[in-house]
Design brief:
By secondary structure, this protein is α+β, with helices and mostly antiparallel strands. The protein contains 12 helices and 18 strands. Strands 1, 2, 3, 6, 7, 8, 15, 16 and 17 form a 9-stranded mixed beta sheet that branches. It has a 4-stranded antiparallel beta sheet with strand order 11-13-9-14. Strand 4 (94-96) and strand 5 form a beta hairpin.
């Protein structure tokens, strides 16, 4: 059986950056490496070609009466820039003080290997394990999974399982694991304002036209009210209220507010109605400005009135908000508030739906199948045993749109076990993964799968 630490060191060496075509060799190498790992423990490998990056389907079949678990992960990673801020080479992993450093160690190569290693250990103990397992590993998660919907439409019968198991979500720290019960969806909109047909001398022409930067800033300033809420009619109409048990779970995080502020480098939080930051990031819909620009950006001064200005906006939405509806509400608000003195162009970006699931120990009628109910209950025990603390059950502020797609298209709910923490620097320099969390996660995953298979 392979050594998990050696496996992650080798896996991370492949620079599998999906957004940049110059990293094609890295994508190919990462895909081949993880495919071979699965082949070596007995899985049949099928490489599904897509318009961009292929998807790996690795299957262990069995009796139709056996439970069927879909294990999800992705082999692509974010770009490593800025390279000069890394303490070691991002694609030459290095172990320091119990952590492994490298691009992708936490998102998502290490967490995926948690489940691969767990399956390998379980099959070594139980070669005839009564459990069907399909690994679904994509190469486009970091660019919004544009090929995934088409894949689901064509291969939905291959995913006729009981539930999805994955670790692409957050836990508070490497000793306190969170089982993620909800994800925010995402909605993107880009707007461009045009005034004059060219950049103009601000002395000769200033005072006779509306500056596109001012027009855009004025529009942006109207999209939130004095309580920091999104000021768009209908934006909150379909929001699912937070339950009592969810509030109680989130409240367990409040003792860490000062640490959270320090980690972010903030003196004060800025939340809707001054609520807890943990409520704000997990159960509150948002509208954020991701990028804004116009005019001269270089060193020194260039006194122009720009021809154009732009803003990039994303909304994080919560159950039961519908992505296309929210996108249209945002577009309508921008159009309504755009002055007549300038012209407006809007491009719609990608959308992803929110997701929510109720664990069986939090409800008398969780509305999930028996295999997933068994997995949730096993996870509670396995995580408590492996990590020394009972898991928290938390919605997460991030988005994994394919989880809602799997629910909506295939009918699969998900057991999401957080296998990275805020300190792991996802998408940033010096990304890292705690090796103790890695080993404990393998132990927990093995026990969960053993329970589902009935071989405890």
């Amino acid at each position: 059986m392979f050594d998990p630490v050696e496996a992650i060191k080798e896996y991370v060496k492949f620079p599998s950056v999906s957004t940049d075509s110059s990293f094609k060799n890295g994508m190919d190498g990462a895909r081949a490496y993880v495919s071979n790992l699965l082949k070596n423990i007995g899985f049949e490998i099928d490489i599904i070609h897509t318009p961009l990056h292929p998807i790996i389907l690795a299957k262990r079949d069995g009796e139709s009466s056996w439970p069927h678990v879909i294990i999800y992960g992705h082999y692509d990673v974010q770009p490593a820039d800025p390279l000069d801020l890394w303490q070691s080479s991002p694609f030459e992993p290095e172990i320091r003080n119990g952590y492994i450093y490298g691009r992708g160690v936490a998102d998502n190569k290490g967490p995926l290997l948690v489940h691969i290693a767990a399956v390998a250990r379980l099959l070594e103990k139980h070669p005839n394990l009564p459990l069907r397992i399909t690994f679904l590993i994509e190469g486009e998660e970091e660019i919004g999974s544009p090929s995934f919907q088409g894949f689901l439409d064509e291969y939905r019968n291959e995913l006729n399982g009981d539930f999805v198991l994955l670790s692409d979500t957050l836990s508070p720290n490497h000793d306190q694991i969170a089982i993620t019960t909800g994800l925010r969806g995402v909605v993107c909109v880009n707007a461009e304002i045009t005034g004059p047909k060219m950049d103009l001398h601000s002395g000769i022409h200033g005072g006779v036209l509306l500056n596109p930067i001012k027009a855009l800033a004025d529009i942006c300033s109207t999209l939130h009210d004095e309580n920091k809420k999104v000021k768009i009619s209908g934006f909150y109409d379909d929001v699912l209220p937070v339950t009592k048990w969810e509030s109680e779970e989130i409240a367990k995080l409040n003792k860490n507010e000062d640490d959270y502020a320090k980690f972010l480098g903030l003196k004060y939080f800025y939340t809707v109605n001054d609520q807890s930051p943990y409520l704000a990031t997990r159960v509150e819909p948002t509208l954020e400005f991701n990028g804004i620009g116009g005019g001269y950006q270089g060193e020194g001064t260039k006194t122009v009135i720009p021809s154009k200005a732009f803003v990039k906006i994303s909304c994080r939405i919560i159950p039961n908000q519908e992505p296309k509806k929210i996108q249209q509400l945002v577009i309508a608000a921008i159009k309504e508030r755009c002055p007549k003195h300038v012209s407006l162009k809007i491009d719609t970006g990608h959308c992803g739906a929110p997701y929510i699931v109720t664990p069986p120990n939090k409800s008398d009628s969780p509305n999930i199948n028996s295999s997933l109910a068994k997995a949730f209950l096993a996870a509670d025990t396995a995580i408590s045993d492996a990590f020394g603390n009972a898991p928290l059950y938390l919605r997460e502020g991030g988005s994994i749109p394919i989880i809602a797609d799997l629910k909506n298209v295939v009918g699969l709910d998900s057991l999401m076990i957080g296998m990275f923490t805020p300190e792991n620097n996802l998408h940033a320099p010096n990304e890292n993964f705690h090796l103790g969390m890695f080993e404990n996660g393998i132990k927990a995953s093995e026990k969960i799968l053993a329970s589902v298979a009935g071989v405890e």
